[in-house]
Amino acid sequence: MLQHFSFKPMFDNTQLPGWTFSFFFRNTRYTGDYLPEGVIVWTGETPPEEDNLKKMIHELMIFHVYD
């Protein structure tokens, strides 16, 4: 389970899409960029169970950003 998930816009001009995010998984902090087309780019270490985590991140972003 993801813990302490947070995100913020990449750019000061919020009209430009793109977000940075971070979270903890198994006591390790991971960071990445969430691009407008739904692509996730890890900016640090790639987490284990990457496919499952990507699904969770997509769900969170859809809920918080697009809803």
TrEMBL record:
Organism lineage string: Bacteria, Bacillati, Bacillota, Bacilli, Bacillales
Protein's UniProt name: YheE family protein
Pfam families: DUF5342
Species this chain originates from: Sporosarcina psychrophila
